[in-house]
Design a protein that fits this description.
Strand content: 25-35%
Structural class: alpha/beta
Oligomer: single chain
Shape: globular
Distance between the termini: 6 Å
Number of strands: 10
Number of helices: 3
Helix content: 10-25%
Radius of gyration: 14 Å
Order of helices and strands: EEEEEEHEHEHEE
Strand order of the largest sheet: 1-10-9-3-6-7-8-2
């Protein structure tokens, strides 16, 4: 097992470590179940998956500001928010929600990260230091 370190751009401050959960689909946090942290959107790549305390990797947020803010707020009140988010395209709505909820968010992670990262791997997001570290198998 090797740990690889990748540069990133800080969007929302913080440093956390945890398990990676990777989605090929955009995420609307309103379509999660606040009590369980599970994505309930039919047809979503992570439908049924629990995003609680995970480092969530996904392309972008989707939906209006009110639904994403409410969705993340409901997750937060139930202790089911992701620990951090790594996104390809940081939209203004997602950024605002993450800052308000104090969830570390980064983007501009190189393509090599996406090629190396696997769901379930250990990861550290250091938004303040501008790095993402992930455990990879050789």
């Amino acid at each position: 097992m090797e740990t690889r370190v990748f540069p990133c751009r800080k969007i929302s401050a913080g440093k956390v470590d945890g398990e990676l959960l990777i989605s090929k689909d955009d995420i609307c946090f309103y379509l999660t179940e606040p009590e369980s942290g599970k994505i309930i959107e039919e047809g979503h790549a992570l439908c049924g998956a629990d995003i609680s305390d995970k480092i969530l990797v996904f392309p972008s947020g989707k939906g209006s500001s009110s639904v994403n803010l409410d969705g993340l707020y409901q997750l937060m009140t139930h202790g089911k928010c992701p620990k951090a988010m790594i996104v390809e395209h940081a939209d203004a709505i997602l950024v605002t929600c993450a800052v308000l909820m104090r969830i570390p968010v980064v983007d501009r992670v190189p393509a090599e990260f996406y090629a190396a990262a696997r769901g379930g791997a250990r990861c550290e997001v250091d938004a303040d230091g501008g790095t993402v570290s992930v455990s990879v198998c050789d």
